[in-house]
Fold:
Amino acid sequence: MRIVRLVLEGLRGRKRDTAVLGGVLLLSFLFLTLSSILLASFSESAQQQRQALHGNWQMMYYAAGENAREQFSPMAECGEIRLVGSTKEQKWVGSMDEAAFSLGSFRLEEGRLPQTEDEIVLVRGRTKQEPMLGETVEMVYLYDYMRGGGNQWRTDLRELVLASLRESDAEDTERAFEWKDAFYADVQAFYDEENNALSFNDGGTMVFPPEYDLDRMLAEREDDLLYVWAMSFMGSDYYTMPLAISRVTAYPGGLYSYGGFLINVKNMSTQITLNGWGYSEKYRGKCIEQSQTGQTVLYKTYTVVGYIAPYADHWDARGYSMPDAFVSPAAADAQLAALRRAEQDYYEGAPRFAPTSILLMRDEAQLAEELGARVLPVFSRLQEPYFRMEGFHAGYEEVQEGFLIGRDPASGKEKTLQLFCSGADYYLQDELGDWRRLSGDPRVPSRWEEFDDILQPMQPSMLTLSDLEGGGYALRINQYSYPPANGAESSVQLLCSGILIGVAAVSSFQVFWVQLRRRRMRLTTLMSIGASDGQVLRMLCLEVFLLLTASCVLGFGLGYALAWWITDRVISVFTVRWYYLIRGVACCFAAVMISAFIPMLLVLRAPLTGREQIGRSILRLRPPKKLRRQSYMRLLLRQMRANRGRTALQFLLACLLALSGLLTVFLCHNAFKTYRRTVTDAGMPDYELVAPYGMSKRYHNTLLETAAPLREGASLVSVWEAPNVWLNVDAYLETSPILRALQQTPQAAGMFRALGEEETGFSVRVIGLEEDSPLWERLFAAVPEGAADRASLLSGESCILLVPHYVPEGSGVRARQADEESLRLLREDEKAGYLLDLSYERIFAAAGQEDRAIRAGDSVKLTAFSQNISGEMLWEKCVERKLAVEAVISVLDEPLWPLFRDRASHVVISGDALVQTLYPSANTRMTGDQARGHRLMAKIFYPDCYGLTRFVVMNDQQADPIAQDTAASDLAEEYGLDFLNYRMQKEREKTTAQRRGMLFLLLGIEMSLVISTLLFSAAGMAIEQDRYRYGTLQALGVSAGQFFGGELWRSLGISAAACLAANLIFAFLQLLVAAWGGGFWQTLMENLHQYPWLVHASICAAFIVIFSLIQTLPVLQINRQQPIQNIRS
Amino acid sequence: MENILQTIDLWKTYNPGTPQAMDALRGVNLCFVKGRYYAIIGKSGCGKSTLLHLLGALDTPTGGKILCAGEDVFARSRRELARFRRRQIGFVFQAYNLLQEHTAWENILMPLHLDGRDADEGYLQRVVQLLEIDGLKNKYPSQMSGGEQQRVAIARALAAKPAIVLADEPTGNLDPNTSRQTLRLLKETVADLGQTLILVTHDMDVAEQAQEQIRIHQGEITEIIHREG
Structure:
């Protein structure tokens, strides 16, 4: 205890020294705690935001079967969204449990969740009309079935109708199934019992007097209703209505028909629709056998009890349809029960509707990838075996040939057999060459037994996490909420802590060193009167330990409180990652103890005589050969040389201060890199509305008028596109480095194709602009004056070609590894542009070269392919066009959306007339419903035959974003357009960038404050140390002005040198990062793109001023003292 | 005879206005004549060093004046005071106060260089020879003994040919032989150059060698003894 008391008394006696060292340590612990908590809090806040927007779930299993939940619930918290059904407007309805509501981060905007069977909550913006709470909506559910052919249908239908007719005692029962000529107009009659009326689907309702019975009504319409019976049907508890059978109808082959006849047996709860191939009597037999689909229709009226905020756009649910409305679980159960009854009654032997769910899973204790690894094996086991059909092509007459791929029953290996298809007849050829007739599509499981001796279905292979990332599977990881850890955040944490600890260690060393030097006489006196080395060491260690402990506790407390205060005002999330914090504090503690130990050891080596040891720096000084007049500046320089350690430390701290400022600017700038790249440099709009066809001008103008509410607060640009167009590149393959390089990429198969004999085509985008499109001006700005014939361009006779510049490597194009984030959202063919060093941006032009294979004045040939399905045949048609090239542009100063979104090469821009020339169908109009149906049909049967019409919308600054969202969404709904909302993404990117920038700024300020404090303390100590010397110089007649001027010039010199050194280090770090990142110039240009050099210069200037102030302010204090006061000190 | 320095009712109080206030000098009135050798003597803490510091403008009085050639020294600006110290005063400190990072010769030339004047080589050579420090020119203070350092300090004080040389116990840190030698050299040099020497000591033997002895006790002049020779 004596030693403790001695130490405490010593600390009290040296108040100033104690305060200085304690202050430095306090600041270090304070900033260490503050930075750790702020980093963790910002990270947590960002994570919470992601989860609030994209859902809490880590894994999603889409279309999970009935028992799937049981399989997964032991591994994770599971929430289930049951898919109740799809409506005729192609909207999905589901029901969800409490766990799903929480895991999905659903937000109830209005009202409440449904509780009874008759209640529904809608997703805002997903239905055409949004009724008020308390109003009713009717949902018409369509359940489609696919089944095999055979005579079952006829029997079913016949029995159905006969049975029902028998019950109703209707006459002319036997006439029900005699149909002779199937080409009738589609007039369906529906009997409305309540109003005693017949409603017809071709429009109109006939209300009959109450005394008319149904037979009489039907007789009145006998001319156009062939066979109509009214039946009553008691089929479900939902509702019952009398049944009407309309006559046989048929649709001639066309875009929206499915060729054949249609029999509607319908009441208000069940509609059975049978489709078959049949056009006339001769096909009659076939038409029943080839029946492929069935449909059940359920009607249900709900009361709207609430609205949920839109969510599906923000989920990582690529390609999957999410519910647009939710009912209660009880309603879902009742719906399924009704469906089962309908199936039981009508579909004997038919497959049953298989209810599916969306399973949401999360395990808080694990990372998303860890949960994925655990869930994958179970998922793989649940997958159905399958066959693949490939290579189908038209054969002789109506025949199609292809291959069926499965598994050899003997060896278990993959096996391919030839498959033959004629209408609904399938034939499989075995190894011996014999053909085996199948009862229908071999992919239908019920038929597998027919050929399982020669071919069996393939078992789904065990998937890996990387398979899931590619998409295409029903199981996926929520990468939006839980992006793959890239180590960046922990690196930042480590970097900040490391720097703070380093600075704390260095500053403690410096302060302690100076203090011990001053106390050396006293310490040697102590040792000369008998204190052992160990005792002195223990005493000094205890001093440091007590100071460290007090500073640590105080610093931690103040840092904690400050972090609380800041987070409360900025992000409202307060998180402490105790492991990192304690680790940092412990490391700082240890580092300071170690750094303080070194001066202690040096003091112990001091001679006990107390004689001042000759400084090595002074011994190294050589007497000048020629004695020059000593100005005060020269005295200062000599003093600096004599105190090299101190001068070096001062310079080092100055460099650190300057560097911390410069790195803060850079890191803040870099925080916006992703935002710049994806938003501002790409010219990302707020919305894109895409029609899945080329819109006729007249209809386009009608749409623009309808879009008036949207356009009030935004600019709207229309772009026509023809996606499936091929540029003949035979003449350019040898001379174009870009084309040659693209041929070598993995995506080449999708980018090049044979156009005919010895002709090679390269897939290009064709963009058509209308005459007054604002994009023309931006394009012409990149073209020399008068070089382009505008009239020719507008008429679609010529084109402007966009060919990016490339970075050469050898004789080709340099390729570099693109970041995963960029690649994740791209199509396969789009990835090529990212993997190769291609760009339209001017900043990269200096390091790149132009591909001059195609030049202005050349003539290029475009070939467009369109498809048509007629009966069972797929026809391909091609249109060729020759175009003159008015100009080739490789650099665009302003971003041109959508051209900047990917680095597509060889984009053809012309008037919209060109698109209509290439795709004759690209000049049409469709209603919203037609467009929605067309989208599906075109995707399956007529891809790339109609082109696209894209509306690019950029909101004005003052526009209300929510109102604009609603206006755009409504427009998309009305016209059946695809609606891509980038506004949320832009906001998200911006917020992320701002947060990150703010964090770096905060850390930079912390660092600067700490280092400035250290510098000030060091300067003050240096002055204190030399005060005796200052007093002597004052006595020798050095004036205050000389003192101040000399110190000012010295500090300006040091700061300028430190600033230069910091800039050199900064430049070196940039070069290092660029070299490390791959693609040296590209990375360097990207990192320094739009770098705020003015701010950088201001920081340098501010540093010089601050440093000079720090160095000269203590001198002012000295100057105020009298010479003898300074000498006596 | 010409008064080179004169103090009028000179007061110096440390920590004025506090309970620890202490009057180091109380109304000191003195005249110093050019070319004479003065010794200020008194016990430790009597105020003799304080008086010397005030005479050398190393400190400022709490009250009273110091006139140099009829002008109030402390009425000047700080810059003029610094010039006064450079040109009129040569101060020898008890602890030598040499600049460690400069050689002996650089230390000696320091006042001239700070004043922007070239050295009078002949004069300085004479001073150096008188003080017997010729061989120490290129040595650093840490390479010299105490006596050598003190002699270098004396040479520095004389380098600018000041009118007044003030020495604060110049032999306080030296052994008796070295003290005698140093003092003799100081006296001879100053006499040779016709400068006024004001020396503070507590050693009676040293004081008796002076032409004027000024005794001071508790901040007040108690006796002034004149000696001819």
In short: Helices of chain B lie at 48-55, 78-87, 104-114, 121-130, 146-159, 176-193, 204-207. The radius of gyration of chain B is 17 Å. The CA atoms of residues 25 and 126 of chain B lie 38 Å apart. The domain at 3-226 of chain B is CATH 3.40.50.300 (Rossmann fold).
